[in-house]
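CORE FACILITY INTAKE
Project code: CF-77B
Contact: R.S. (postdoc)
Sample description: multi-component assembly, two entities in total
Requested service: structural model of the whole complex
Turnaround: standard
Below are the sequence entries exactly as provided by the requester. Do not edit them.
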Amino acid sequence: MTNEPQSAAGPRVGIAIAAPVALAYFCFTFAFGISARAAGLSLPVSLLLSTLVYAGAAQMAAIALLAAGASMATGVLTVFLINLRGVVLSLGIARHTTRWKKWQRLLFGVELTDETFALHSARWKLTAADASQALAANIFCHLAHCTGTLVGFAAGATVPDLKPLGLDYILPAMFIALLVPQLKLRSSAAVALAAGGIALGCHQVGLSDFATVIAILLAATLGMVMDWNRGVNDE
Amino acid sequence: MSELLLVVTVLLMSLVTMLPRVLPLLIATRVTLTARTRSWVRHIPVAAISALLVPELFSRNDGGAAANLYLWVALPTALVAMQCKHFLVTIVAGVSFMAIARWLFLS
Protein backbone atom coordinates (compact mmCIF):
# COMPACT_ATOMS: atom_id res chain seq x y z
CA MET A 1 0.00 0.00 0.00
CA THR A 2 2.77 2.46 0.89
CA ASN A 3 6.19 3.02 -0.63
CA GLU A 4 8.02 2.66 2.63
CA PRO A 5 10.55 -0.17 2.71
CA GLN A 6 9.21 -1.68 5.94
CA SER A 7 5.66 -1.89 4.56
CA ALA A 8 5.73 -5.71 4.46
CA ALA A 9 6.48 -5.99 8.17
CA GLY A 10 4.27 -3.03 9.08
CA PRO A 11 0.84 -4.67 9.00
CA ARG A 12 2.07 -7.79 10.79
CA VAL A 13 3.59 -5.73 13.61
CA GLY A 14 0.44 -3.61 13.70
CA ILE A 15 -1.76 -6.64 14.24
CA ALA A 16 0.57 -7.97 16.94
CA ILE A 17 0.59 -4.72 18.93
CA ALA A 18 -3.19 -4.35 18.57
CA ALA A 19 -4.03 -7.86 19.80
CA PRO A 20 -4.78 -6.92 23.45
CA VAL A 21 -7.07 -4.07 22.38
CA ALA A 22 -8.78 -6.28 19.80
CA LEU A 23 -9.44 -8.96 22.42
CA ALA A 24 -10.90 -6.38 24.82
CA TYR A 25 -13.09 -5.02 22.01
CA PHE A 26 -14.32 -8.49 21.14
CA CYS A 27 -15.35 -9.14 24.76
CA PHE A 28 -16.97 -5.71 25.11
CA THR A 29 -18.99 -5.99 21.91
CA PHE A 30 -19.95 -9.58 22.67
CA ALA A 31 -21.80 -8.18 25.68
CA PHE A 32 -22.97 -5.23 23.58
CA GLY A 33 -24.42 -7.60 20.95
CA ILE A 34 -26.46 -9.47 23.54
CA SER A 35 -27.85 -6.28 25.04
CA ALA A 36 -28.52 -4.68 21.64
CA ARG A 37 -30.71 -7.64 20.81
CA ALA A 38 -32.34 -7.46 24.26
CA ALA A 39 -33.05 -3.77 23.59
CA GLY A 40 -35.02 -4.81 20.52
CA LEU A 41 -32.55 -3.75 17.85
CA SER A 42 -32.13 -5.78 14.67
CA LEU A 43 -28.82 -7.37 13.68
CA PRO A 44 -28.25 -4.89 10.78
CA VAL A 45 -28.80 -1.87 13.05
CA SER A 46 -26.54 -3.34 15.77
CA LEU A 47 -23.79 -4.05 13.23
CA LEU A 48 -24.23 -0.62 11.69
CA LEU A 49 -23.64 0.94 15.12
CA SER A 50 -20.45 -1.06 15.66
CA THR A 51 -19.20 -0.43 12.13
CA LEU A 52 -20.07 3.24 11.56
CA VAL A 53 -20.16 4.72 15.07
CA TYR A 54 -17.40 2.46 16.42
CA ALA A 55 -17.38 3.64 20.03
CA GLY A 56 -17.83 2.22 23.51
CA ALA A 57 -19.91 4.31 25.89
CA ALA A 58 -21.71 6.06 23.01
CA GLN A 59 -22.99 2.79 21.56
CA MET A 60 -24.27 1.69 24.95
CA ALA A 61 -25.95 5.06 25.41
CA ALA A 62 -27.48 4.69 21.95
CA ILE A 63 -29.11 1.32 22.69
CA ALA A 64 -30.23 2.44 26.15
CA LEU A 65 -31.91 5.53 24.65
CA LEU A 66 -33.39 3.73 21.65
CA ALA A 67 -34.79 1.00 23.92
CA ALA A 68 -36.34 3.67 26.16
CA GLY A 69 -38.05 5.23 23.14
CA ALA A 70 -36.03 8.44 23.09
CA SER A 71 -36.32 10.75 20.10
CA MET A 72 -33.84 10.74 17.24
CA ALA A 73 -32.58 14.18 18.24
CA THR A 74 -31.84 13.06 21.80
CA GLY A 75 -30.01 9.95 20.61
CA VAL A 76 -27.89 11.80 18.07
CA LEU A 77 -27.12 14.72 20.41
CA THR A 78 -26.09 12.37 23.24
CA VAL A 79 -23.78 10.37 20.98
CA PHE A 80 -22.33 13.62 19.64
CA LEU A 81 -21.55 14.88 23.16
CA ILE A 82 -20.01 11.59 24.32
CA ASN A 83 -17.80 11.34 21.24
CA LEU A 84 -16.84 15.01 21.20
CA ARG A 85 -13.62 14.01 22.91
CA GLY A 86 -12.63 12.63 19.51
CA VAL A 87 -11.55 16.21 18.75
CA VAL A 88 -9.14 16.11 21.69
CA LEU A 89 -7.69 12.78 20.55
CA SER A 90 -7.49 13.81 16.91
CA LEU A 91 -5.84 17.17 17.68
CA GLY A 92 -3.47 15.42 20.07
CA ILE A 93 -2.18 12.94 17.51
CA ALA A 94 -2.40 14.95 14.26
CA ARG A 95 1.19 16.22 14.43
CA HIS A 96 2.50 12.65 13.99
CA THR A 97 0.61 12.00 10.76
CA THR A 98 1.25 15.18 8.78
CA ARG A 99 3.43 13.27 6.25
CA TRP A 100 0.82 10.59 5.58
CA LYS A 101 -1.38 10.51 2.51
CA LYS A 102 -4.81 12.07 2.84
CA TRP A 103 -6.72 8.76 2.67
CA GLN A 104 -4.46 7.32 5.36
CA ARG A 105 -5.24 10.21 7.69
CA LEU A 106 -8.95 9.88 6.92
CA LEU A 107 -8.99 6.15 7.68
CA PHE A 108 -6.88 6.65 10.80
CA GLY A 109 -9.34 9.28 12.06
CA VAL A 110 -12.38 7.08 11.42
CA GLU A 111 -10.83 4.36 13.59
CA LEU A 112 -9.49 6.67 16.30
CA THR A 113 -10.80 5.55 19.69
CA ASP A 114 -9.52 6.10 23.24
CA GLU A 115 -7.70 2.77 23.05
CA THR A 116 -6.14 3.09 19.58
CA PHE A 117 -5.11 6.64 20.52
CA ALA A 118 -3.37 5.37 23.65
CA LEU A 119 -1.71 2.55 21.70
CA HIS A 120 -0.20 4.76 18.99
CA SER A 121 0.60 7.87 20.99
CA ALA A 122 2.62 5.74 23.42
CA ARG A 123 4.57 4.10 20.55
CA TRP A 124 5.13 7.30 18.63
CA LYS A 125 7.01 8.83 21.53
CA LEU A 126 9.76 6.34 20.62
CA THR A 127 9.40 5.63 16.91
CA ALA A 128 8.20 7.41 13.78
CA ALA A 129 4.56 6.98 12.83
CA ASP A 130 4.35 4.07 10.36
CA ALA A 131 1.09 4.37 8.42
CA SER A 132 0.70 0.74 7.31
CA GLN A 133 1.42 -0.51 10.82
CA ALA A 134 -1.01 1.89 12.50
CA LEU A 135 -3.78 1.32 9.95
CA ALA A 136 -3.42 -2.48 10.19
CA ALA A 137 -3.63 -2.23 13.99
CA ASN A 138 -6.75 -0.07 13.77
CA ILE A 139 -8.49 -2.20 11.15
CA PHE A 140 -7.83 -5.29 13.27
CA CYS A 141 -9.41 -3.62 16.33
CA HIS A 142 -12.36 -2.42 14.26
CA LEU A 143 -12.92 -5.93 12.86
CA ALA A 144 -12.79 -7.42 16.35
CA HIS A 145 -15.35 -4.83 17.46
CA CYS A 146 -17.76 -5.81 14.66
CA THR A 147 -17.15 -9.56 15.00
CA GLY A 148 -17.86 -9.40 18.73
CA THR A 149 -21.16 -7.64 18.00
CA LEU A 150 -22.16 -10.32 15.50
CA VAL A 151 -21.21 -13.23 17.77
CA GLY A 152 -22.85 -11.61 20.83
CA PHE A 153 -26.04 -10.93 18.92
CA ALA A 154 -26.14 -14.54 17.66
CA ALA A 155 -25.42 -15.89 21.16
CA GLY A 156 -28.23 -13.73 22.57
CA ALA A 157 -30.60 -15.16 19.99
CA THR A 158 -30.06 -18.69 21.35
CA VAL A 159 -31.44 -17.66 24.76
CA PRO A 160 -35.25 -17.50 24.65
CA ASP A 161 -35.72 -15.63 27.94
CA LEU A 162 -32.92 -13.38 29.18
CA LYS A 163 -34.37 -12.63 32.60
CA PRO A 164 -33.83 -15.91 34.53
CA LEU A 165 -30.13 -15.77 33.55
CA GLY A 166 -29.88 -12.11 34.55
CA LEU A 167 -28.83 -11.23 30.99
CA ASP A 168 -31.17 -8.22 30.92
CA TYR A 169 -28.72 -6.76 33.46
CA ILE A 170 -25.79 -6.68 30.99
CA LEU A 171 -26.34 -3.03 30.05
CA PRO A 172 -26.50 -1.68 33.64
CA ALA A 173 -23.51 -3.92 34.52
CA MET A 174 -21.56 -2.49 31.56
CA PHE A 175 -22.37 1.04 32.69
CA ILE A 176 -21.21 0.18 36.22
CA ALA A 177 -18.04 -1.44 34.85
CA LEU A 178 -17.22 1.71 32.88
CA LEU A 179 -18.25 4.20 35.57
CA VAL A 180 -16.85 2.87 38.85
CA PRO A 181 -13.11 2.84 37.92
CA GLN A 182 -13.41 6.53 36.93
CA LEU A 183 -14.71 7.59 40.33
CA LYS A 184 -11.27 7.69 41.98
CA LEU A 185 -10.86 11.25 40.75
CA ARG A 186 -12.83 13.62 43.00
CA SER A 187 -14.09 15.73 40.12
CA SER A 188 -15.26 12.62 38.23
CA ALA A 189 -17.12 11.37 41.30
CA ALA A 190 -18.82 14.75 41.63
CA VAL A 191 -19.72 14.74 37.92
CA ALA A 192 -21.22 11.25 38.20
CA LEU A 193 -23.22 12.16 41.30
CA ALA A 194 -24.50 15.39 39.76
CA ALA A 195 -25.37 13.79 36.41
CA GLY A 196 -27.22 10.92 38.07
CA GLY A 197 -29.15 13.27 40.36
CA ILE A 198 -30.04 15.72 37.59
CA ALA A 199 -31.17 12.93 35.25
CA LEU A 200 -33.30 11.39 37.99
CA GLY A 201 -34.80 14.81 38.74
CA CYS A 202 -35.58 15.44 35.05
CA HIS A 203 -37.38 12.08 34.83
CA GLN A 204 -39.41 12.96 37.94
CA VAL A 205 -40.66 16.24 36.49
CA GLY A 206 -41.47 14.71 33.12
CA LEU A 207 -38.46 15.90 31.12
CA SER A 208 -37.41 12.32 30.33
CA ASP A 209 -36.41 12.97 26.75
CA PHE A 210 -34.06 15.80 27.69
CA ALA A 211 -32.79 14.22 30.92
CA THR A 212 -29.54 12.83 29.50
CA VAL A 213 -28.53 15.92 27.55
CA ILE A 214 -29.37 18.35 30.38
CA ALA A 215 -27.50 16.16 32.90
CA ILE A 216 -24.43 15.87 30.63
CA LEU A 217 -24.18 19.61 29.99
CA LEU A 218 -24.62 20.66 33.63
CA ALA A 219 -22.51 17.91 35.21
CA ALA A 220 -19.59 18.27 32.74
CA THR A 221 -19.61 22.01 33.42
CA LEU A 222 -19.45 21.29 37.16
CA GLY A 223 -16.46 19.00 36.57
CA MET A 224 -14.73 21.67 34.49
CA VAL A 225 -15.28 24.31 37.19
CA MET A 226 -13.91 21.93 39.85
CA ASP A 227 -10.78 21.21 37.79
CA TRP A 228 -10.37 24.92 37.08
CA ASN A 229 -10.63 25.90 40.74
CA ARG A 230 -8.02 23.36 41.71
CA GLY A 231 -5.79 24.55 38.90
CA VAL A 232 -5.68 21.13 37.32
CA ASN A 233 -4.00 21.18 33.96
CA ASP A 234 -4.60 17.84 32.33
CA GLU A 235 -1.38 17.71 30.34
CA MET B 1 -39.01 3.94 15.70
CA SER B 2 -39.29 2.10 12.40
CA GLU B 3 -36.29 0.18 11.04
CA LEU B 4 -35.67 2.85 8.40
CA LEU B 5 -35.76 5.62 10.98
CA LEU B 6 -33.35 3.61 13.16
CA VAL B 7 -30.92 3.28 10.27
CA VAL B 8 -31.13 7.03 9.60
CA THR B 9 -30.54 7.68 13.32
CA VAL B 10 -27.45 5.47 13.32
CA LEU B 11 -26.13 7.19 10.18
CA LEU B 12 -26.52 10.58 11.88
CA MET B 13 -24.83 9.20 15.00
CA SER B 14 -21.97 8.07 12.77
CA LEU B 15 -21.69 11.51 11.17
CA VAL B 16 -21.51 13.38 14.49
CA THR B 17 -18.95 10.86 15.78
CA MET B 18 -16.70 10.85 12.71
CA LEU B 19 -16.50 14.59 12.03
CA PRO B 20 -14.79 15.43 15.36
CA ARG B 21 -12.47 12.42 14.97
CA VAL B 22 -11.49 13.03 11.37
CA LEU B 23 -11.46 16.79 10.73
CA PRO B 24 -8.44 17.74 12.89
CA LEU B 25 -6.40 14.94 11.25
CA LEU B 26 -7.45 15.88 7.72
CA ILE B 27 -6.99 19.60 8.08
CA ALA B 28 -3.86 19.17 10.23
CA THR B 29 -4.43 22.47 12.00
CA ARG B 30 -2.22 23.95 14.67
CA VAL B 31 -5.28 24.71 16.79
CA THR B 32 -4.94 23.76 20.43
CA LEU B 33 -7.81 23.56 22.87
CA THR B 34 -7.63 25.33 26.20
CA ALA B 35 -7.22 23.17 29.30
CA ARG B 36 -10.73 24.24 30.30
CA THR B 37 -12.32 22.98 27.08
CA ARG B 38 -10.46 19.67 27.29
CA SER B 39 -11.53 19.23 30.90
CA TRP B 40 -15.18 19.89 29.97
CA VAL B 41 -15.09 17.44 27.06
CA ARG B 42 -13.38 14.75 29.11
CA HIS B 43 -16.04 14.87 31.83
CA ILE B 44 -18.83 14.14 29.32
CA PRO B 45 -18.57 10.32 29.14
CA VAL B 46 -18.77 9.91 32.94
CA ALA B 47 -21.70 12.33 33.04
CA ALA B 48 -23.49 10.48 30.24
CA ILE B 49 -22.99 7.01 31.72
CA SER B 50 -24.23 8.15 35.12
CA ALA B 51 -27.17 10.05 33.61
CA LEU B 52 -28.28 6.87 31.85
CA LEU B 53 -27.49 4.41 34.64
CA VAL B 54 -28.99 6.13 37.70
CA PRO B 55 -32.57 6.57 36.39
CA GLU B 56 -32.42 2.98 35.08
CA LEU B 57 -31.56 1.73 38.59
CA PHE B 58 -34.42 3.64 40.19
CA SER B 59 -37.13 3.15 37.60
CA ARG B 60 -37.15 -0.63 37.24
CA ASN B 61 -39.45 -2.60 39.43
CA ASP B 62 -39.60 -6.36 39.13
CA GLY B 63 -42.67 -6.44 41.34
CA GLY B 64 -43.19 -8.30 44.58
CA ALA B 65 -41.74 -7.59 48.01
CA ALA B 66 -38.16 -7.59 46.77
CA ALA B 67 -39.02 -4.40 44.86
CA ASN B 68 -36.17 -2.95 42.92
CA LEU B 69 -33.55 -5.61 42.20
CA TYR B 70 -31.90 -3.38 39.59
CA LEU B 71 -30.81 -1.02 42.35
CA TRP B 72 -29.80 -3.61 44.97
CA VAL B 73 -27.81 -5.73 42.53
CA ALA B 74 -25.88 -2.59 41.52
CA LEU B 75 -24.25 -2.45 44.97
CA PRO B 76 -22.31 -5.76 44.90
CA THR B 77 -21.63 -5.20 41.18
CA ALA B 78 -20.04 -1.82 41.96
CA LEU B 79 -17.95 -3.50 44.70
CA VAL B 80 -16.62 -6.00 42.14
CA ALA B 81 -15.89 -3.13 39.72
CA MET B 82 -13.90 -1.39 42.47
CA GLN B 83 -11.80 -4.46 43.16
CA CYS B 84 -11.33 -5.70 39.64
CA LYS B 85 -9.99 -3.79 36.66
CA HIS B 86 -11.38 -6.02 33.89
CA PHE B 87 -14.83 -4.91 32.78
CA LEU B 88 -15.74 -8.42 31.66
CA VAL B 89 -15.45 -9.73 35.23
CA THR B 90 -17.76 -6.95 36.44
CA ILE B 91 -20.33 -7.74 33.76
CA VAL B 92 -20.30 -11.46 34.50
CA ALA B 93 -20.59 -10.67 38.23
CA GLY B 94 -23.50 -8.27 37.70
CA VAL B 95 -25.40 -10.71 35.52
CA SER B 96 -24.78 -13.58 37.98
CA PHE B 97 -25.88 -11.45 40.94
CA MET B 98 -29.08 -10.58 39.06
CA ALA B 99 -29.78 -14.23 38.23
CA ILE B 100 -29.20 -15.27 41.86
CA ALA B 101 -31.28 -12.40 43.22
CA ARG B 102 -34.21 -13.29 40.95
CA TRP B 103 -33.95 -16.94 41.97
CA LEU B 104 -33.83 -16.04 45.68
CA PHE B 105 -36.44 -13.31 45.82
CA LEU B 106 -38.80 -13.65 42.90
CA SER B 107 -39.24 -17.37 42.28
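Facility notes:
- Chain B touches chain A through 74 residues (CB under 8 Å).
- Chain B has four helices and no strands.
Invoice: internal transfer
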